[in-house]
């Protein structure tokens, strides 16, 4: 069971890393193109609309053209269909290369590929991860206990805080 907890912690760390690295090359270029296409709009507003449409440049562009009243030809002439397809392919290729590079740099192998990796080292690694999982488990239980105590005392803000700490870990 301890190994399962350790594996779950490892997967949680990996998914957190993936969520934090959403700002890839394609997203950066899309933002830059939106800034250049709509210089009169506030950058925060542009980013809110961009995020609301799932970081899709085309959907954001369509919505902004419709809502700002700009003629669609003015904006459409910025990119011809052929140029847009070529640019999308280039953006996808750059994004794939960047994400592959990030994965290589940030994903340590699960099992070290040392030739001299002995059984004792493997067991010590397992013990370490087991102890780490136990520590996280105890911290989670302690936060649950504190949240329950605060709730029973009627201190709901503190109870909410400890509940959030438990759900984030």
UniProtKB/TrEMBL annotation:
InterPro entries recorded: Endo/PolyKinase_Domain-Protein
GO CC annotation terms, alphabetical: nucleus
A GO term for molecular function: endonuclease activity
Domain of life of the source: Eukaryota
Cited CDD domains: CUE (cd14279)
PANTHER family: NEDD4-BINDING PROTEIN 2
Protein name (Swiss-Prot/TrEMBL): CUE domain-containing protein
Lineage: Eukaryota, Metazoa, Ecdysozoa, Arthropoda, Hexapoda
């Amino acid at each position: 069971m301890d190994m399962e907890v350790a594996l779950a912690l490892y997967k949680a760390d990996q998914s957190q890393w993936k969520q934090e690295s959403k700002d890839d090359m394609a997203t950066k270029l899309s933002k830059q193109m939106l800034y250049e296409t709509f210089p009169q709009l506030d950058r925060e507003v542009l980013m809110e609309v961009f995020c609301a449409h799932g970081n899709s440049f085309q959907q954001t562009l369509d919505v902004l053209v419709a809502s700002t009243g700009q003629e669609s030809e003015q904006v459409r002439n910025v990119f011809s269909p052929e140029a847009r397809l070529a640019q999308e392919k280039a953006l996808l290729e750059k994004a794939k290369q960047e994400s592959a590079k990030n994965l290589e740099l940030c994903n340590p192998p699960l099992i070290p590929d040392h030739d001299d990796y002995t059984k004792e080292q493997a067991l010590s690694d397992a013990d370490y991860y087991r102890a780490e999982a136990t520590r996280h488990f105890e911290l989670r239980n302690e936060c649950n206990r504190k949240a329950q105590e605060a709730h029973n005392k009627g201190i709901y803000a503190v109870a909410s805080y400890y509940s959030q700490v438990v759900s984030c870990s």
